[in-house]
Specification:
The structure is a single chain. This protein has 351 residues and is mainly α. The chain has two domains: 39-278, no CATH class; 302-341, no CATH class. It has 14 helices and four strands. It has helices spanning 19-51, 56-82, 89-105, 111-133, 138-158, 178-201, 203-213, 215-220, 225-251, 256-259, 262-275, 282-296, 302-319, 325-350, and strands at 3-5, 8-10, 168-169, 253-254. The strands form two sheets. It has a two-stranded antiparallel ribbon with strand order 1-2. A hairpin with a 2-residue loop joins strand 1 (3-5) and strand 2 (8-10). Helix 2 (56-82) packs parallel to helix 6, helix 3 packs antiparallel against helix 4 (111-133) and helix 11 (262-275) packs across helix 13 (302-319). The radius of gyration is 23 Å and the shape is globular.
């Protein structure tokens, strides 16, 4: 039975628990609860700014950043936790965009119903594509996902029902206003980040990481490898498709050039890699670095921007495969620990 003293609670052996022993459980609980709370608070603040009196140019920028965060984190779900490097992100962005555009333009659905339709539609698309793709591993999975992107792009470009190269434009009167679209983008980004937070602390996330690190060993331990891959693949597909649906509402149409653009795949891969694959904050940091420094500042030099992004990706894969953010965090922790040790040493000398 645990006893209490003025110094603190006694353990069953009668020794006084240290301050670290008393605080550690609270720290662990806080570390689990804090990320979702922070995500929700930030999303609420951004929505307040967007729905308030912010300029429309700022609103459009906020929407684009939110969509990039959603796509980068949806890619991070696959690569960071399951070890599946996908080159087919644009396929799911395009599928979500065309789902919304065709529901609004061809079926006369309201935009909000069309956006809700993305969820079951992407469940089906994700499941169908998972049948051949999840039989592949490593480089073969990447090549297979890229082939899926090329196939969907070709279908949208050549079939009349999808408008061929002109795409599917939506009536302006059927679209939400830019502030509502930006709020939707922020909501999708928040849900995607929360999904990553869940995987970082849940048992399912631990199972995925076990599969990523050693699939054979995970099977030996009884982990359901196939179903785990299927769940995370379909989840990533749905979240990416939702981002594509909001993109269609922002652009007012779905076209092969924009909706299936390779830039979504390259951007997701680069942004997640810059910030740190398999982390919660990494892709968010990567979005701001890549978008502001390499895309926004060089928007008049598109070719140069792509060259720099490609070179940066090669350097990161070779020199810092875990991304820039994790080493920065480790450096910060090292500096803090050394500073604390110096203070303790100086306090000991004074005593």
């Amino acid at each position: 039975m645990t006893m209490l003293t003025r110094s603190g609670p006694l353990t069953p052996t009668g020794t006084v628990r240290t301050w670290e022993e008393r605080v550690t459980p609270l720290y662990r609980r806080t570390r689990t609860i804090a990320p979702p709370v922070v995500v929700v608070v930030i999303a609420a603040v951004l929505m307040g700014v967007v729905l308030g009196g912010a300029k429309l140019s700022l609103v459009d920028t906020a929407a684009r950043i939110a969509l990039l965060i959603a796509v980068a984190h949806a890619w991070n779900l696959l690569a960071g936790f399951a070890g599946l490097i996908s080159l087919g992100t644009s396929a799911f962005v395009g599928a979500g965009a065309y789902t919304v555009a065709m529901a609004v333009a061809n079926l006369g659905w309201p935009w909000w119903a069309a956006l809700l339709l993305v969820v079951p539609a992407m469940l089906v698309v994700g499941y169908l594509l998972s049948i051949p793709l999840l039989r592949l591993r490593a480089d073969y999975f990447a090549i297979g996902s890229f082939a899926a992107l090329l196939a969907l792009h070709a279908i949208a470009s050549n079939l009349g029902v999808f408008g061929r190269s002109m795409g599917v434009p939506m009536p302006t009167a059927a679209l939400p206003d830019p502030r509502t679209t930006a709020a939707l983008a922020i909501a999708v980004a928040a849900v995607t980040v929360l999904a990553v937070v869940y995987l970082s602390v849940s048992r399912f996330g631990l199972r995925l990481q076990a599969i990523r690190d050693n699939e054979a060993a995970a099977k030996t331990l009884g982990v359901a490898v196939k179903s785990s891959y299927l769940i995370v693949f379909v989840l990533s597909s749905v979240l990416t498709g939702l981002a594509g649906g909001v993109l269609a509402l922002q652009d007012g149409s779905a076209t092969p050039a924009n909706s299936f653009a390779m830039s979504w795949t390259i951007g997701a891969l680069l942004m997640a890699t810059v910030g740190g694959v398999g982390t919660v904050t990494g892709p968010v940091m990567g979005v701001f670095v890549v978008y502001w420094l390499l895309q926004k500042q060089l928007e008049d030099f598109a070719a140069l921007s792509l060259i720099i992004q490609g070179a940066l990706l090669i350097v990161l894969v070779r020199a810092a495969p875990t991304g820039i953010w994790p080493p920065v965090k480790r450096l910060g922790k090292t500096i803090l620990l050394r500073t604390r040790d110096r203070r303790l040493a100086s306090a000991g000398k004074k005593a």
